[in-house]
Amino acid sequence: MPRAPVKSDIDACGLTLSELQELWLGPGPGGSCFHSREELVAAWAAGRAVVMRLWGSHGRRPQGYYEFEWEGPRPAYAVERSSLWRAGALSEAERAELEAEWAQAFDSARGKSARERREHFEHHDVPDELIREWAATRRRRPAAPLAAVEEAAAVK
Predict the structure, then answer these.
(1) Which of 38, 51, 83, 147 has its C-alpha lying 20 to 30 A from 113's C-alpha?
(2) pTM score
(3) In whole angstroms, what is the distance from residue 63 CA to residue 122 CA?
(4) Is 85 in contact with 59 (CB distance < 8 Å)?
(5) Residue 63: predicted pLDDT
(6) Is 16 a member of any domain?
(7) Domain count along the chain
(8) What range does the domain containing 56 cover?
(9) In this structure, is residue 15 part of a structural domain?
(10) Residues near 132 by beta carbon (within 8 Å), at least 6 away in sequence
(11) 66 and 98 share a domain?
């Protein structure tokens, strides 16, 4: 007996691929697939889970997210990830992923000039708050205890 095909969440949401694409990227050059704002709102409700699963990760969000869930204008692509981080709009996994990536970018800037570090951090969209925190931690690394310093001096 043949098995019934399993419907994917893409098929189950009831939206066409063109409609899902519009929720991801916004309307195409020929205009919207939707005939009214109400259709667009209903499409987001029906397809949100699929659209977010496919295109709402790694600190990036689809157009539908910014249309229906974000206050204010969509942030520029270059600062999208830090904007979502600051707003607390990332999942714990995304936050950890980005902070690990940013920590690596912070560490790799060691030894560069101030201008080069600034450009490097900007290129990687490292939040200023984390830069300040990590720089302060680096400066606060404990020095050797005084007794150990005195002991080393006595040995010489």
Answers:
(1) 83
(2) 0.81
(3) 23
(4) yes
(5) 98
(6) yes
(7) 2
(8) 8-74
(9) yes
(10) none
(11) no
